[in-house]
Write a structure and sequence with these properties.
The complex is a heterodimer of chains A (about 350) and B (about 280). Helix content of chain A is about 30%, strand content about 25%. With about 350 residues, chain A is of the alpha/beta class. The two termini of chain A are about 40 Å apart. In chain A, the strands form two sheets. Chain A has an eight-stranded mixed sheet, with helices on both faces. In chain B, helix 4 runs parallel beside helix 7, helix 4 runs antiparallel to helix 9 and helix 9 packs parallel to helix 10. With about 280 residues, chain B is mostly helical. Chain B has one domain: Orthogonal Bundle (MetI-like fold). Chain B has eleven helices and no strands. Classes of the chains: A alpha/beta (about 350), B mainly alpha (about 280). Chains A and B meet through helix 2 of A and helix 8 and helix 9 of B.
């Protein structure tokens, strides 16, 4: 029985280029994905892989004159965001697509109370009196689990802890009931227990509102907890995309395997065996100004074949059940992985 | 406002500054009522007299009452300081804010180079040029000071904006669908206000000094109207026989500048939300 899929955001072959002194840099090169209502898609990758640029491209917040969307389409409920005028796009920002940023410590304006900042977000998109907006702000603070919301609404950002501030950021993002929430590493910089609370909160709110979440992170532990589907990016391209269980259970792209192997695990060593060393992917992510020929990952890949991988960019192919892999040798890689203990 | 006053109470120096500023403003406003004599009436029987019962602070070279001239002089000096600084900030802050917010070649090659050029210009030379156009008067002096001080505010507002525009809360405000103009007024301006207020108080103090210099050169307040600056300069001619002529206006300028600086310093602390 085919399940009705309610796709709110579709990114199709997105190309984002930055003009620099050394020429054009393809920060995002042909990324495509679909975001369903009520689901979470995680964008995973190292710093510089193009995750955040993807989100800024969607919001059309790339710095003018430096970065631009050079190709592809971004459809929000079937509307191409690239074709909107700036005033139309402003109505989308915050109202239809909201963002939560990485740094809760600096994402709030220091000179206004948090209540005022939430109220401002509401009033930006709804014809509502200041008094009513303030009342809504207090309700929102309660929704995001802030105790004594009426008192806290009168607090300035510096009077709140990092976790509290991130809750406030989420309250601001939720102010206009957006259909898509883009969370750009929302838990980086928070300690682990607070991280868990924030993730719980986001999951609960998603259940209540049915919003779609685009979750940008480099933390695979968070991905496992949050995501329905995962898209792994490397050097501006999608290298693997799958639902969360197959991706974690059977990563098919050597890069994803490397990422998985570099997560420390407790008690993973069998008895009598000394703890295995933590695997790291050798080398560094290549500079986007100077990508290697062929598969961008081949200089770091232990499966790379000198004939093919160094000359050809593999296509993103379906390895079965919608598990997309960009690797010419994924079949061989999979076999070795199964043969190895 | 009431919170402002409550905060001020906890800062004795700031309160002193506020007291001085209020006192000066009152003196300037009520000069006609406070001055015991007409400040421009000479008494040729009592020239260069030291402090006495009749003339509490003495008389100047034409026998005019120093106290009355000092009281009337507060008008010209405060006006010059206040209006010149408001003019300078009024011109400079919007230009600096917009220029720093949008960056680009206009900012880099037009606004910045023009401010460089203007900062290289001595205030007296510009005042001379303006006087040639508008005729010498207090308002000419104020406009001249305002224009010469504007680049300071352009630079300061721009520099502060440059750092604030990169902050995440500005990006977050954009992501919420705010307009550029709204972000500039509601998010950038309040966050760059503290240094601007300090700069205004410092500039106001120096503007009073510059007005004094201009008045001395005959480019500002015209005799016989008194201003602290013109009184001070005249007083230097009589340092030997009548030192009080230079002393009193000098003291007045010193107290005014000190008061304004103390007040501005305290104001910054009060306006900083991290301190609330």
């Amino acid at each position: 029985m085919p399940v009705e899929r309610n796709i709110v955001l579709e990114v199709d072959n997105l190309q984002t280029h930055f003009s620099t002194d050394e020429g054009v840099v393809r920060a995002v090169d042909g990324v495509s994905f679909q975001l369903e209502a009520g689901k979470t898609l995680a964008l995973v990758g190292e710093s510089g892989s193009g995750k955040s640029v993807t989100s800024l491209s969607i919001m059309r917040l790339l710095q003018k004159g430096v970065g631009r969307v050079a190709g592809g389409r971004i459809l929000f409920e079937g509307r191409d965001l690239a074709a909107l005028t700036e005033p139309e796009m402003r109505r989308v920002r915050g109202k239809d697509i909201a963002m939560v940023f990485q740094e809760p410590m600096t994402s709030l304006t220091p000179v206004y109370t948090v209540g005022d900042q939430i109220a401002e977000a509401i009033m930006a998109h709804e014809p509502i009196s200041k008094r009513a907006a303030r009342a809504r702000a207090v309700e929102l603070l309660e929704t995001v689990g802030i105790p004594e919301p009426a008192t806290r609404a009168r607090a300035y950002p510096h009077q709140l802890s990092g976790g509290m501030r991130q809750r406030v950021m989420i309250a601001i993002a939720l102010a206009c009931n957006p259909k898509v929430l883009i969370a750009d590493e929302p838990t980086t910089g928070l300690d682990v227990t607070i991280q868990a609370q924030i993730l719980d909160l986001m999951r609960r709110l998603q259940k209540e509102t049915g919003m779609a979440i685009l979750f940008i992170t480099h933390d695979l532990g968070v991905v496992a907890e949050m995501a329905d589907r995962v898209l792994v990016m490397y050097a501006g391209r999608t290298v693997e995309e799958a639902a969360v269980e197959p991706l974690f259970g059977e990563p098919r792209m050597p890069y994803t395997q490397g990422l998985m192997a570099s997560i420390p695990r407790l008690g993973s060593a069998p008895e009598g065996v000394s703890h295995p060393r933590l695997q790291a992917i050798r080398g560094n992510i290549p500079s986007p100004r100077n990508l290697p020929q062929g598969c961008a990952f081949h200089p770091r890949c232990e499966h790379a074949s000198p004939d093919f991988c160094t000359h050809n960019v593999p296509a993103l192919e379906d390895s079965g059940m919608g598990h997309m892999v960009r690797c010419a040798r994924w079949r061989d890689v999979l076999q070795t992985a199964q043969v190895a203990p | 406002m009431d919170r402002l006053l409550v905060k001020m109470r906890g800062k004795p120096l700031g309160a002193l500054g506020l007291l001085i500023v209020i006192l000066l403003v009152l003196v300037a406003i009520f000069a006609p009522l406070l001055a015991p004599y007409n400040p421009t009436d000479p008494d040729f029987m009592a020239m260069l007299q030291g402090p006495s019962d009749q003339y509490i602070l003495g008389t100047d070279e034409l026998g005019r009452d120093m106290l009355s001239r000092l009281i009337w002089g507060a008008r010209a000096s405060l006006q010059a300081g206040l209006i010149a600084v408001i003019l300078a900030a009024g011109i400079g802050v919007p230009i600096g804010l917009i220029s720093g917010y949008f960056r680009g070649p206009l900012d880099e090659y037009v606004v910045m180079r023009l401010t460089d050029a203007m900062m290289a210009f001595p205030v007296i030379v510009l005042a001379l040029a303006l006087t040639a156009i508008m005729g010498p008067s207090l308002s000419t002096a104020m406009v001249a000071i305002g224009i010469v001080y504007a680049p300071i505010f352009i630079r300061l507002a721009r520099a502060q904006t440059l750092s604030v525009r990169e902050t995440e809360y500005v990006e977050a405000a954009r992501a919420l669908g705010n307009r550029h103009i709204g972000i500039m007024i509601k998010h950038v301006l309040p966050n760059i206000a503290s240094p601007l207020i300090i700069q205004m108080s410092v500039s106001m103090a120096t503007a009073i000094l510059v007005e004094s210099a201009l008045s001395f050169l005959g480019l500002g307040v015209q005799p016989p109207t008194p201003s602290w600056g013109s009184m001070l300069r005249i007083g230097t001619n009589y340092m030997q026989e009548a030192p009080w002529i230079a002393f009193w206006p000098g003291l007045a300028i010193f107290v005014a500048v000190l008061g304004i600086n103390l007040f501005g310093d305290a104001l910054r602390d009060v306006l900083d939300p991290r301190d609330r």
